UniProtKB/TrEMBL annotation:
Organism field: Altericroceibacterium spongiae
The CXXCXGXG motif repeat ranges on this chain: 148-155, 165-172, 187-194, 201-208
Cofactor: Zn(2+)
Protein name (Swiss-Prot/TrEMBL): Chaperone protein DnaJ
Binding note for cofactor: Binds 2 Zn(2+) ions per monomer.
Phylogenetic classification of the source organism: Bacteria, Pseudomonadati, Pseudomonadota, Alphaproteobacteria, Sphingomonadales
């Protein structure tokens, strides 16, 4: 079977929209199934193993995959794609498969160790709702591992150099045999680097990095919310022996506001009004987060719990245009301190009530009366 005769996606049994993780999972599953060591003497399985390896070798590379998606197999014929159409697999992936099949008896998969990227770091920052509304530029101080200034990250004492490892002869891996199988593993002497430091740097003790406090500038854009993550590329922990640094991720936490509660781009607040305003109607003025006063018109006869909306008076849309809404929940407040005059006026009002003024109350008591009548009949 030739991989050029069958669509690569069909070979790997995935959709053309499959992401990198899906591709790798499908490849590992098929490679384990058709691996020659699992199917000794089976020429068809060996051919299938080579075919899926070739397919994965193409699709795991973004440039090769783009060329294949556009031109198909022709992309790798007559030099069109510039890629190698031969059937081979990434050694790290094969090492993962061997480890899955045969266990970790030899300390993991083979292959020369690549420079280990520095660790990503997390920083939790608390900001106010006002900061989230307007955005802000600020500074943080973090203690991270940075490249050693004495040895420039090499780990070797200045004036000295690394030498090739005598055990693996600079390859970074050694072979060990288990029964019929020869397994490669990282060299225990140089830890897969292929080089040995005879004179470690005294400042960093051969690590190539030291801990140092750093002041970092952080830009917080308008509209951020709880859990928004800001990435500072290359500001994480430095990698060992001059390897690239990781990233710093800043997670934002917004403090509780005295007036507003936030839900997405909407700002919610509760506004108490007197029962006379609720009955007769009126208006209230609420200052927005931008300092602009927003007039909210209260219709006559409004009830507690009714929500009124002011369009465009909420939070900015993160990395977008426009703003959300301000939502005002009306709370009708019953007076607790009345003058004699006010009490007298209320008594006069009570004497003029017909029941039509509060239809919900009248309807409720009519239901109770009806239910009571049904029970007594």
């Amino acid at each position: 079977m030739s991989a050029t005769e069958i669509d690569f996606y069909e070979l790997l049994e995935v959709e053309r929209t499959a992401d990198e993780k899906t591709l790798k999972s499908a490849y590992r599953k098929l490679a384990m199934r058709y691996h020659p060591d699992r199917n000794p003497g089976d020429a068809e399985a060996e051919a299938k193993f080579k075919a899926v390896s070739q397919a994965y070798d193409c699709l795991k590379d973004p440039q090769k995959r783009a060329a294949y998606d556009r031109y198909g197999h022709a992309a790798f014929q007559q030099g069109m794609g510039g890629g190698n159409g031969g059937a081979h697999a990434d050694f790290g992936d094969i090492g993962d498969i061997f480890e899955t099949i045969f266990g970790n008896a030899f300390g993991g998969g083979g292959g020369r160790a690549r420079p280990r990227r520095g660790a990503d770091l997390r920083y939790d920052m608390e900001i106010s709702l006002d900061d989230a509304f307007h955005g802000k530029d600020t500074q943080i101080e973090v203690e991270v591992s940075v490249a050693c200034g004495t040895c420039q990250g090499t780990g070797a004492e200045p004036g000295t150099a690394k030498r090739g490892c005598n055990l693996c002869h600079g390859i970074g891996k050694v072979r060990a045999q288990q029964g019929l199988f020869v397994i490669e593993k990282p060299c225990p002497n140089c830890h897969g680097r292929g080089e040995v430091i005879e004179h470690p740097c005294k400042t960093c003790r051969g690590e190539g990095r030291v801990d140092e406090a750093q002041q970092l500038d952080v830009n917080i854009p308008p509209g951020v919310d709880n859990g928004t993550r800001i990435r500072l590329s290359g500001k994480g922990e430095a990698g060992p022996m001059g390897a690239p640094p990781g990233d710093l991720y800043i997670f934002l936490h917004i403090r509780k506001h005295a007036v507003f509660e936030r839900e997405g781009t909407a700002l919610f607040t509760r506004v108490p009004v007197s029962f006379t305003v609720a009955a007769l109607g009126g208006s209230v003025e609420i200052p927005g987060m931008d300092g602009t006063p927003h007039e909210i018109t209260i219709p006559a006869g409004i009830q507690s719990g009714k929500q009124l909306r002011k369009r465009g008076a909420g939070m900015p849309v993160l990395q977008g245009r426009g703003r959300g809404d301000m939502v005002v929940e009306i709370i009708v407040e019953t007076p607790t301190k009345l003058s004699a005059k006010q009490k007298e006026l209320l008594r006069e009002f009570k004497e003029t009530e017909t029941g039509e003024e509060c239809p919900e109350s009248r309807g409720f008591f009519d239901k109770i009366k009806s239910a009571w009548t049904d029970l007594t009949e």
